[in-house]
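Morning, I've got a small favour to ask if you have a moment. The fold is given in discrete form, as structure tokens running alongside the sequence. I'd be grateful if you could look everything over and explain what you see. No rush at all, and the record is pasted right below.
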Amino acid sequence: MEPFVTLEALAVSLDRANVDTDAIIPKQFLKTIKRTGLGVSLFYDWRYASDGKTPNPEFILNQDRYKGARILVARQNFGSGSSREHAPWALLDYGFRAILAPSFADIFYNNCFKNGILPVVLGDAQIDRLFTEIPKTPGYRLNIDLPEQSIRLPDNTRWSFDIDPFRKKCLVEGLDDIGLTLAYSSDIASYENRLRREAPWLFSTNA
């Protein structure tokens, strides 16, 4: 998993509340178990016309000024609905590394951390300010410093945010569940070697 330390990037605001995981990545794209290739189908039903191919010019991500955005600003209860891990996969594959919202669905929130996305809970007034400023300011960029737990706005206003220390450590060090396990590989090997000595019958290859 790619570490998340600091991120300075273009921000885009999606002015919809209760965006569920089926809207983020519809069910027909859940057949794959690969984490790549889903970005093209992110927000599929909103992003494309009824033919599924022609970009909808009214959808925010199809506007040229937001091309390359890596920070998504959303409304409350983002990521509600089913627990599909494909939702953060699609967001990450599109290019998003951080999502700012007043609240998130619990399972989606947890899945973001496990896949290298930083979900940040901000106050309603802060989110409202971003929804006011982003559309008015082409090229609106935010700077997120995870070790400092701060967000810097274009006018140098700084906001702090809370994050669980363990989740912070995992993001900064780029540790997903597999990475966390491999961090204890020497302990695991020592245990297996001891077990082979103490209980060799468990490892017998005889039928």
Notes: The CA atoms of residues 169 and 175 lie 8 Å apart. The longest helix spans residues 185-198. The mean pLDDT is 93.
